[in-house]
Amino acid sequence: xxxxxAKCTNCGAVLPVDNTRDAWICNYCNTPFxxxxxxxxxxxxxxxxANTVNIFGGRESDFxxxxxxxxxxxxxxxxxxxxxxxxxxxxxxxxxxPITSVKIPxxxxxxxxxxxxxxxxxxxxxxxxxxxxxxxxxxxxxxxTFVTIPSGITDISDAFQxxxxxTSVTxxxxxxxxxxxxxxxxxxTYVTxxxxxxDIGxxxxxxxxxxSVTxxxxxxxxxxxxxxxxxTSVTxxxxxxxxxxxxxKNCYNLVDINWSHLSEYANFFPAIAKRKEEGLCIYCGGKLxxxxxxxxCGRKN
Length: 301
Fold this sequence. Notes:
Elements: E1 3-7, E2 14-18, E3 23-25, E4 32-34, H1 35-44, E5 63-66, E6 69-73, E7 79-81, E8 88-89, E9 101-103, E10 110-111, E11 124-126, E12 146-148, E13 168-170, E14 190-192, E15 212-214, E16 233-235, E17 256-258, H2 270-277
Parallel strand pairs: 6-8, 7-9, 8-10, 9-11, 11-12, 13-14, 15-16, 16-17
Antiparallel strand pairs: 1-2, 3-4, 5-6
């Protein structure tokens, strides 16, 4: 089989192709292409070899890209526009760099772990609908104030840990895993969790400004809210049948709890345990009658 060097017409990866074939599929981005065009594409830049870096857009030294994977940004501009035809932003590609904004093209399918972690000056980011995974990508971006998570993303686990300036976020219905996603987001006050989410383990630990949250029926394990000192209201679905005591540790202001099993686990909620100790209604804090029926809300304790 007569293999020759060719350059993918989509991502620019250099790869061997059978020149007797009319079409081929890129090993890197899985895009089909015309073999003759890819060979001509290679011949135009015939100084390129399989191990050579391919550069797209901007100044030649700004982007290190191999086979559609952006491995490193070396430019000086703090407002970054990632070149078209990048398929994946590689692990630690921008880690710790003083960038303030980034625009990601529709060609990108994945943003790898730590790709933008420790970018403490990053204030805004536009994530295209083509991306399906941003797990761990924006950890410790302490200046990030707002982010739009597009529909289509399924995994945002650990994505925004310690993004201390993030105040609100809307999670699309496509997301399944948010475990650890907002751990340490101390300015986060509002969040909506869709019914698609099944895993929230550790998602909101130490979110000290979070005031209320509704957990969907799709969730069974709620070990996610320890240290949420401003949390006052929570709705827990019937799918959660028991807790173990650590889920709401140090949530001293949590007094409004809508959960069918509250009476069984009242002692695991600091404010509710205090009500119970003082002989008050665990549901509303009202006074109880002799038969332990609340004089205010009418519920039996």
